[in-house]
Amino acid sequence: MKKILITFLLVFSVNIYSAPVQIVDVNNNKLNGFHYKNSKSKSIALILHGTRGHQKLELITSLGLSLLENNIDSLSINLSYGLDNRQNDFLPCDIEHTHLESDSIIEIKAWFDYVKSLGYEKIYLIGHSRGGLNMMQFYNNLITSDYIFIQSIFLIAPISDTYEDTRKIYKEKHKIDIHSLYSQKNKMLEINFLNCDNTQVSSYTFLNYYGNKNQSKNGLTEKLKHTDKEIYVITASEDSFVPNTYKRVKEIIKNKKNIKLVMINDADHFFRDLYFDDLMDVILEAITE
């Protein structure tokens, strides 16, 4: 009965204080988020999903509810991928992909500015998978006066592939040298993209995500090397999506005291079941209200 009552009170609290949020970006597209909030929190986490995902994925929702249960507000957001008012569904594969990852970083900044306007004293960044990479790209593009708002960054199973990694994979698996796409920047391709098999994507979009010439500087490991903020990189031993992240970050932290690297044994990329509790233990031990 006690467990049922606690669950009821949590859901009741979410219904009272928490609500969907919508803002408009610079392209006049409506962006959707969900604000988990209570009447006491002075801290908020900005939470970002992974590749083609959304704010209502199990991991993302669980993060919001667990933080709220510990008196920490959060805002989970949907990247638009160039779609107006994108709802809580995976971005379909069977569309013409002309969206840009660089635009996703601009959207994160819009949400960050929105969170600042609400008067929170501490802001935490949480990103899963590609969302972890995007959070680092966003953070490293902030102006100096914005840095003080961010307390810590949590990267959950973040993507760590470099341009050369991607180029090698496409050569081996798909017999394509993506470097050749630089001469085809306005061409529609049929190619594997964002875990979609043989989908329609513009060469400009493909390069913006995978092959831009600055990717070595825009990748996760380079961003971590040039960041002094407190960062937690949380990896899973059974992760088949980003199996090399732990090894790559381990090399960096030899000279970076601000980065904490954690491996959760037996967890997969999505930290399902009891492994989510291990994930939350890391986050909650680091967050101060």
Question: What does this protein look like?
Answer:
With 289 residues, the chain is an alpha/beta fold. The chain is 38% helix and 23% strand. It is built from eleven helices and eleven strands. The strands form two sheets. Strands 1-2-4-3-6-7-10-11 form an eight-stranded mixed beta sheet, with helices on both faces. β1 (19-24) and β2 form a beta hairpin. α3 crosses α4 (130-139). The two termini are 29 Å apart.
Q: How many strand elements?
A: 11
The portion of residues forming beta strands comes to: 15-25%
Structural class by secondary-structure content: alpha/beta
What's the rounded overall pLDDT mean? 90
- Largest sheet, order of strands side by side? 1-2-4-3-6-7-10-11
Number of helices: 11
Helix content: 25-40%
Question: Oligomeric state of the chains?
Answer: single chain
Uncertain runs: 1-13
The biggest beta sheet reads:
8 strands, mixed
Query: Termini distance?
Result: 29 Å
Shape: globular
What is Rg? 19 Å
Order of helices and strands: HEEEHEEHEHHEHEEHHHEHEH
